[in-house]
Write a structure and sequence with these properties.
The structure holds two protein chains of two kinds. Chain A is α/β, with parallel strands linked by helices. Helices cover 36% and strands 24% of the residues of chain A. Chain B is built from 14 helices and no strands. Chain B is mostly helical. Classes of the chains: A alpha/beta, B mainly alpha.
Chain lengths: 301, 331
Amino acid sequence: MTITAPLSSAEHAAYLAQQTPVLTATNVSVTYEVKPPVEAVKHVSLTLNRGEILGLAGESGCGKTTLAYGLNRLLKPPALLTSGSVTFHDESGEDIDVVALGDKQLRAFRWDKVSMVFQGAMNSLNPVISIRAQLHDIFTTHRPAMSRKEKEERSAELLQLVGVDPNRLGSFAHELSGGMRQRVMIAMALALSPQVMIMDEPTTALDVVVQRGILREIMRLRERFNFAVVFITHDLPLLLEISDRIAVMRAGEIVELDTAENILNAPQHEYTKKLLGSFPSLFGERGDFVRTGITETEVGK
Amino acid sequence: MKFYVRRITFYLVTLWAAISLNFFIPKLMPGNPADIFRENLLRQGGEITPAMEQTIQLLFGSPDDSLWEQYTRYWSNLLQWDLGVSTTKYPTPVTELLAEALPWTLVLVGTATVIAFVLGVGLGAWAGWKRGTWVDSLIPGSALLQSIPYFWLALVLVAVFSVNLGWFPIIGGYSAREFRAGPEMSWAFVSNAAFHAILPAATIVISSVGGWLIGMRNMMVATLSEDYVTTAEAKGLKPSRVFLTYATRNASLPSLAGFTITLGFVVAGSIVMEQVFSYPGIGKLMITAVTQKDFALMQGVFLVITLTVLAANFVMDIFYGLIDPRARQNV
């Protein structure tokens, strides 16, 4: 099988030259061992730079989430990482080979270096234990030296960071709204000041107003703490707005990888053009509202 | 706090309703305890003298009393723990018969039910956690155990272990030969009773553990694919923490609800087993009462069953509230 590199541009190469990578995935393939086997991610190579937002766009089932889980080795059978390497370039200068980590090292690596915010805003919190217990769990596991008082203070501080009243620490998931739950999840993801945060459709289950509030929060927090974000969504216009670079995925491959600006103004791959065209414009002629897939991008050019 | 006050009020009202029903339902049944008692007496060759007739009226109440008078007297008797006199074992008070039978059933069936539940849920959680490995081969076996009729299993166990191998006693709650005076508080008696309890308890455990195991295993597999379990794993939590607090605690909720119901039937549900092993418990007492039309005893047995069902439900309700915060709020 030939591996075709994703379409890209000179601007993209110039942009990359100025950045330092924090996470490098090389030639990653993931197969679901069902009958017949499904190759969900095919020889994907991707670099995430320190402090940038990398958008991962594509339709449902194209392998976005599988790729993200692969980066953190969260895949469960029947999904299997069949090839590739994932390297994490720590702030300290040390390189961590994620694929080679043992169970214990892997647990220590997770959340401390790479944290995640999941798709299901409603189901990511354990319904039977309080928010406090779930936040404290993180500290108990990764920072065993912290006293109860320190954990409590840090938890309150985290909730404040994401705009949730610290009095909510004793609440349970069912007592919070969808937006609040997702904010709590983001607070949890921030708990250990990770260098990378993988966000898998963090706002999909929320309405647009709450979505906007949460996105603003993410942007603000990223500027403050300078973590890199892999932002997964099928909402390309959203990515165009927030990301530095965008990878467009289709059928397990990254077909185009470029700066957000180039994706918007000069998409090269047919599929990218189609994706861009599938979102209606708020301006222009009445006819433009129809999803032709062509008009929009040509206007863009 | 409000949750508990509400639950307690609810149970008090239910208790009142159950006890009242326990009074009214036998009244609606055909037959009259006083008549049955007279017939029994006549059949045994007795004679009904006017003095005897007066005693009968004192015992069962005058037929001229209004329902309300009978009802209030029933309550006042009940509060004095007086449930009348058994006609089959005349003149033993019903309370005495119940007090003799209840500990046997409670200890044997109660312990066996709890053991079956803990074992089944524990194994089920583990089998769910290890899904896709050799542990899955436990499932067909437990499905088979689950489908074995329980009286048949009891008979097979008696045939194999008591009759053929002679390892265990065939019937009874204790050796009547060694303890002629009846139950006593001694180490020898307790160990003798425990020895007699092994086969009946094994019957209950073997026939119900499979159901718990399968139910729990399936819930566990479903729970493990929940997002909060993936989140817990992504958080790098220890597998033991993920297993207990994130997966098992959530997956065991339906099993616990089922356990509430089962616990309620601990006293009533052992009739067949007690019959097979001639075990001196409540189930055997109930069969006696029903076949002999011993109304006072029947009422007493039903009352005890009702009370245990309510008590078991109450305890499990409170416990459920402790482990599932949602139950605390929405009831």
